[in-house]
Amino acid sequence: MRVSIADIRTFKQKGEKFVMLTAYDYSTARIVDEAGIPLVLVGDSLGMVVLGYDSTIPVTMEEMLHHTRAVVRGCKRALVVGDMPFMTYHVSVGEGLRNAARFIQEGNAQAVKLEGGERMAETVRRVVECGIPVMGHIGLTPQSIHQLGGFKVQGRTPEAAAQLLKDAQALEQAGAFAVVLESVPFSLARLITQKVGIPTIGIGAGPGCDGQVQVVNDMLGLFPDFVPRHAKQYARLGDIIRQAVTDYATEVKSGTFPTEKHSYAMDEALLAELAGTA
Ligand code: KIV
User: 45 CB less than 6 Å from ligand 1?
Assistant: First the structure.
């Protein structure tokens, strides 16, 4: 049976740490799902790690829906969250609602994520009222990168820290089922986690969160541009792939691949007839 938002709430109630991972394609989603990861995020980070944009800002609804459908096809058990792209929920609550609905109806996701706290509370409330589970995202919100002045740790001044706590509480009151805390000092993330009833999911927010999320390409060593401080590389697949590709080219050039083992045989008599030597 597929993981539900009630299961995610239960993790917090039981004090059980849990994991969310991003995925952007069918094959990776299958592996992540088979590994038992309960929450899979089709993050708009796909703009950077899959599509090669220099931020998440150019990502469109069509790109997100395309990848969300692929990930859902790969996930039998995990709850799949579609990440709403920049400017698809900011102009009006109605537009946010329509685009959230597209993730469910056309993308086949089970929930959506959007960036922003208090200022997005009304949109979150309406989307939840319509039956669509919403995950919040506060702290470093990459869609506001120009406003924030770069990929910087958030909540370091007393005012900013107090606002982050208010943001998390506003999201809880609006009905969000969980909230991502990105690049927030670990002591503040721990405090927010204690003060809200919904699970917090940290990335660069320390061990005090209820759950953790990583960008799958970062943790697998598959994104060559940079490794964020908060990412841990559990594998270096980029190096493995580079070596495999080099080996393949070397073998083709030297004639050691393909062998007959990797080819298909034909009836010898038919071949002789074709060649006119029968
Ligand atoms: O887009 C993304 O991958 C995200 C995670 C970093 C939480 O928003």
Answer: yes
Is a pLDDT exceeding 90 seen at residue 132?
A: yes
Q: Could you tell me if the CB of 180 is within 6 A of ligand 1?
A: yes
Domain boundaries, the chain: 5-235, 240-277
d(CA 141, CA 50) in angstroms, rounded, equals 19
- The pLDDT tens digits of the residues spanning 208-222 come to 999 999 999 999 999
Check residue 138 and report its DSSP letter: E
Cis previous bond, 258, omega within 30 = yes
Q: Across residues 40-53, what is the average pLDDT? A: 98
Q: What are the helix and strand counts (H, E) for the chain? A: 12, 8
pLDDT band at 181 (very low <50, low <70, confident <90, very high): very high
CATH architecture designation of domain 5-235: Alpha-Beta Barrel (3.20)
Task: For ligand 1, say whether the CB of 216 is within 6 Å of any of its atoms.
Answer: no
- Long-range CB pairs of 200-208, under 8 A, 24+ apart, other chains included: 200/168, 201/20, 201/39, 201/135, 203/230, 204/140, 204/153, 204/228, 204/229, 204/230, 205/139, 205/181, 205/230
CA distance 106 to 218: 28
Give yes or no for residue 44 CB within 6 A of ligand 1: yes
Distance, in Å, from the CA atom of 214 to the CA atom of 235, rounded to the nearest integer, reads: 13
The verdict on whether 129 is a catalytic residue reads no
Q: Which of 129, 182, 251, 273 is catalytic?
A: 182
Q: Whose CA is nearest to atom 3 of ligand 1?
A: 43
pLDDT of residue 225: 85
